[in-house]
Specification:
alpha+beta; Cytidine Deaminase, domain 2; 5-stranded mixed sheet; 5 helices; 5 strands; globular; binds tetrahydrodeoxyuridine
Length: 148
């Protein structure tokens, strides 16, 4: 599956930057724009808890704030704190496929075509699941509903 492994490795390369001192669930994402640029994101937690932002939204907000609004794929990886040293050396499998939360799915829906945008949930570079956004967020509400 061309391109998936590269994007997963891009995400894995950033998981050590995740700031997750409360959950110890370290997440990283690599978002590919339609013109081939990569935007990385990590989850950033907060002592007040609710300001926490997920890795996926970090990646999207970085890209959109740079003027990029067209995307074709995102790879998401996660590691527990105890897994981090191993994953910095070689991608090691974690128990769960890191599925995006509902809020992040809705942010994807704002900028991506649900039929074609590809979401890659990776336990390692060679153990991953691939979905379209439509599969993860069926019957979704999007910007076209508000256009007059
Ligand atoms: N988290 C993400 O970064 N992405 C997801 O899709 C699910 C959850 C983060 C938020 C929080 O820092 C930690 O994982 C535990 O929920």
């Amino acid at each position: 599956m061309p391109g998936y492994t590269d994007l997963i490795c891009q995400a894995l390369s950033k998981v050590q930057d995740s700031y997750a001192p409360y959950s110890h669930y370290h997440v990283a994402a690599a978002l590919r724009s339609s013109d081939g640029r990569i935007f990385h994101g990590i989850n950033i937690e907060n002592a007040a808890y609710t300001p926490t932002v997920c890795a996926e939204r970090t990646a999207f907000f970085k890209a959109v704030s740079e003027g990029v609004r067209s995307f074709d794929a995102i790879a998401i990886v996660a590691a527990a704190k105890s897994d981090l040293p191993a994953r910095m050396q070689a991608p090691a499998a974690v128990p769960c496929y890191p599925t995006p939360c509902g809020v992040c799915r809705q942010v994807m829906r704002e900028f991506c075509d649900p039929d074609t945008f590809t979401v890659i949930l990776a336990r390692s570079a060679d153990d991953f699941k691939v979905y379209t956004l439509k599969e993860l967020l069926p019957e979704s509400f999007g910007p076209e509903f508000l256009q007059t």
